[in-house]
Amino acid sequence: MKWIIIISSFAVSLLLTGCQLNERSEESSMLNNRSDSSNVASRSGNNLPLKETEYGREAISDGNDTNANEEATRILTEEATSIIIYFSRSGNTENLARMIHNQNGADMLELSVVNPYPADYEASVDRANEERENQEFPEISTDIPDLSQYDTIYLGYQIWAMTLSNPMMSFLLTNGTNLSNKTIYPFSTNAGYGEGDSLTKISELVANAKLAESLSIQDEELLANQEKVAAWMNKN
Ligand SMILES: Cc1cc2nc3c(=O)[nH]c(=O)nc-3n(C[C@H](O)[C@H](O)[C@H](O)COP(=O)(O)O)c2cc1C
User: Fold this and answer.
1) Which residue intervals define the domain Flavodoxin-like in the entry (predicted)?
2) pLDDT tens-digit readout, 43-53
3) 13, 141, 184, 221: which is deepest, by most CB within 10 A?
4) ipTM of the complex
């Protein structure tokens, strides 16, 4: 009798452990399924940290855009209707994208290029000028998800040669039609000369773009002026 009790309680505990393991693996597969990618940097609703960056000629890239030591930010959920799509070479626009995400919890898609810009600022300027003169913009390596679930796009870029940076030109040349009829909130960082003709360029590349009021902040003022971001978001 004693043995029967010991064996049956062992069997019951095995059964319970099996159920718990099953539940845990279902939970983790649900988490994985919530995003359409494995390289999820954070879950929507979590605050993303801001980073110290450099400006002007000191604004080195780590040689692999902002992603040498971490995977590009990619937060995709099934329920979101807003997404922040951005490129950042030296981290300023990424910080602005993170400030926006930390306020509204929108999905995030950081763009990367197949051939990253050099770490050196001047070398990046030379390459960017050559690309623009030849109208040969860099190939985007990011897997672009189906954007049909989003009605609002926060589009983040930096100003290069007083217009859209080359990677953002590339993105819109290829994907501009997928943004038609969506509301676009353009946001950018610059070195003190404003947003140039970037809004006109967006209107040219996105058919029927519904452009909302834009936000452009000087790189070195960004971290000290977070209230500008909050004011812009409150207005919209
Ligand atoms: C190739 C290149 C061209 C740039 N051209 C301009 C410009 O025409 N006007 C300006 O205000 N800033 C210019 N900048 C400065 C960047 O717009 C600014 O530092 C921005 O914050 C960089 O953003 P990121 O750190 O997200 O890459 C240029 C920077 C680079 C690398």
Assistant:
1) 82-236
2) 445 799 998 88
3) 184
4) 0.99
